[in-house]
Each structure stands twice: as structure tokens, then as C-alpha cells.
Specification:
single chain, mainly beta, 10 Kd Chaperonin, Protein Cpn10, Chain O, 6-stranded antiparallel sheet, about 0% helix
């Protein structure tokens, strides 16, 4: 009997875009009150899991400053959220990333 295996989706962002896995929110209690998932703010930090080749400017490709594996802080409302293989991901432009952590 054959079993179906789920293939891991590989994401290749275009131009100067990066794919970020948001960091998990660790705090669920504040002052003894439960905060439901729908009321929590979106995380503003995450780990880069894919990087595009860079934008083209004046006919030349400008390489990306960001690399896979870096932890970054990004704009609160930046990017577009996607759910791929039951994983929340955010795709955004490199310019929406504010800082590298560590």
C-alpha cells in the first residue's frame, strides 16, 4: 500500500523580497488575564528563510544585504502574510526590514 508524503514547498522570492517566519509570541498572560490569539498584536520580529536575488537598478543587479538565517525586526504592517504547509510566513521587500538582531 502506497503512502502519500507531503513534499516540502520551496519558496524563491523575486527581486528584493525576503520570506520571513515570524517569531512565536511567548507571553500569554498579562496581569492574570488571558489574551486570545485574535487580540494579540502581530509579531514584528522573525527569521529570514529565503532571500531574492536583489533588485535591478540602472541595468545592474544590486545584491541583498540580508541573508537566510538572520533574525530581523520589520515594520508592523509590512508584507503579505501567507500560510504554506501549515506555517505562517510573511513576504516583504528588503526595505521594510529595519534591523538585524544579534
Amino acid at each position: 500500500m502506497a503512502t502519500a508524503t507531503k513534499a516540502k514547498v520551496r519558496i524563491n522570492p523575486l527581486q528584493d523580497r525576503v520570506v520571513i517566519r515570524p517569531l512565536e509570541e511567548t507571553e500569554t498572560m498579562r496581569g492574570g488575564l488571558y489574551i486570545p490569539d485574535t487580540a494579540k498584536e502581530k509579531p514584528q520580529a522573525g527569521e529570514i528563510i529565503a532571500v531574492g536575488p536583489g533588485r535591478i537598478e540602472k541595468g545592474e543587479r544590486v545584491p541583498m544585504d540580508l541573508k537566510v538565517g538572520q533574525k530581523v525586526i520589520y515594520s508592523k504592517y509590512a508584507g503579505t502574510e501567507y500560510r504554506i504547509d501549515d506555517e505562517e510566513l510573511v513576504i516583504m521587500k528588503e526595505s521594510d526590514v529595519h534591523a538585524v538582531i544579534g
